[in-house]
Amino acid sequence: MVIHWKPVIVLFVTVASSITVMARANVLPPAPAQPAPAPTAAAIDNESSPGDYAQPFRPPPRQPTGNVLTYYAETFRYKTTPPNAWEWGDDACLTAGTSRTPRTSVPSCGGDGPPQDPNGSGALQLTPPSSYVDGFVFLNMPLPTNRGLSATFNFYSFDGTYFSGDGLALVLTDGRRVLPRKPGGCCGSLDYAQYVNRGCNEFGLRNGYIAVALDETGVFSLADEGRSGGTRNRHVNMLAARGSVQTSDQFLLSTVNAQGKPASLPFSLSHQWSQTRPNPLTVKVTLTHAAVLTVSLDRNDGYGPRVWIPPTEIIGLVGQPVLPPQVYLGFTAAAGGTESRHQINDFVVTTASL
User: Fold this and answer.
1) Of 214, 229, 310, 299, which Cα lies nearest the Cα of 264?
2) Residue 12 CB coordination number (10 Å)
3) What's the CA gap between 129 and 273, in Å, rounded?
4) Looking at the 3D structure of the chain, how many domains does it have?
5) Lowest mean pLDDT segment, chosen from 43-47, 162-166, 181-185, 216-220
6) SS3 assignment for 118-177
7) What is the pLDDT of residues 100-115, one digit of tens each?
8) Can you list the pairs that 97-103 forms with residues at least 24 positions away whose Cβ atoms lie under 8 Å?
9) CATH code at 256?
10) Residue ranges making up the domain that contains 220
11) Choice between 133 and 310, residue whose per-residue pLDDT is larger
């Protein structure tokens, strides 16, 4: 067999977060004129090759949406959250919390010790830099979906091992049913999907409707460890969504390349070598009243937000049911054999707008 080698030119670009990443260029390639369709579980046999990155999409023309109503806003930057506003579990905590953080608040990360961050400069931490950890929070009020929902937050993943932790997900559950107080499957299932491995059998999150994940290791998207549907191969640094508990949390869609195949983002979601909080990755997840999902990311690098999951109706994808009339909203995160601090702040949820 004769192997023909072709020269490849890469450029090393140093970004403001003090890490170095390898990219094809310091400006992302132009978006295609017509967005490729987002893949479903039926499309996973036709996957991208390593190094064939996902493509951003041009946002659709803005439509008049009327006044945007803010349902809830929480910075998570201070030492307390409003009394009984959040349900939390496992390692979820406030980095600016102190020994005086009340029991009705998300707890302090430092316990009786000093806070990790000054009051006003903190974040909600869902996992510490340890192996086999997880954390979750849920807003303790159901949100109506008749005008859709749009959630925006800053995401940070840092202070980890040579591989980052598994990731973080924004989660919606059926608001007509009981609020979840226990996580779903651990590790790469991100406390949402089921998890079956090494004699461990954990069910998916109770009453889950959808989880939109920052899938750092690509395991959340993988058809493995008891998860229903997904990619055959692991693609790190993906955006991905899994569906309702009624479908056994089926894989719905992910970031794709120009041919519509599942693919990694052209940048890392994690800053695992940094021990300090990096520049935020601002995430916006929009789900309209008709269950049309859009996800954009802003790296706060001067280029503004880019759409990575184009508007996609999820109803009917691998049996996904209609959007419930009200939902609970929360965040889950996990790390298996690898480590990362997973944190968020500046969370806002409003009625949907493009």
Assistant:
1) 214
2) 9
3) 12
4) 1
5) 43-47
6) CCCCCCEEEECCCCCEEEEEEECCCEECCCCEEEEEEEEEECCCCCCCCEEEEEEEECCC
7) 999 999 999 988 888 9
8) 97/122
9) 2.60.120.200
10) 40-350
11) 310
Nearest alpha carbon to residue 183 among 174, 194, 175: 194
DSSP 89-121: EET-EETT--TT--TTSPPBTTTTS--SS-TTS
In a domain, 289, yes or no: yes
Q: What is the pLDDT of residues 12-60, one digit of tens each?
A: 333 333 333 233 233 334 444 344 444 444 345 456 555 578 888 876 5
How far apart, in whole angstroms, are the C-alpha atoms of residue 222 and residue 38?
16
Question: In this predicted structure, what is the pLDDT of residue 31?
Answer: 40
Q: Which two tokens stand for residue 40?
A: 């479903």
Torsion of CA 135, 137, 206, 142, to 10 degrees: -170
Q: How many CB atoms lie within 10 A of CB 34?
A: 8
What is the residue type of 28?
Answer: L
What is the amino acid identity at position 57?
F
Average of per-residue pLDDT across 217-237: 79
Which residues contact residue 34 at a Cβ distance below 8 angstroms, ignoring those fewer than 6 apart? none
pLDDT-derived band of residue 196, with 50, 70 and 90 as boundaries? Answer: low
Per-residue pLDDT for 177 more than 50? yes
Domain-embedded: residue 52: yes
The C-alpha atoms of residue 272 and residue 341 are separated, in whole angstroms, by: 8
103's tokens = 């029991």
Question: DSSP code of 235?
Answer: -
**What proportion of the chain, given as a percentage, has pLDDT over 90?**
51
Task: Specify the pLDDT at position 188.
Answer: 58
Residue 106 is assigned to a structural domain of this protein: yes
Answer whether residue 117 is part of any domain: yes
Residue 217 tokens read as 């290791």
Identify the CA nearest to 276 among candidates 343, 196, 346. Answer: 343
What does the pLDDT average to over 241-254?
A: 90
Q: Are 143 and 327 in contact (CB under 8 A)?
A: yes
Whole-model pTM: value is: 0.82
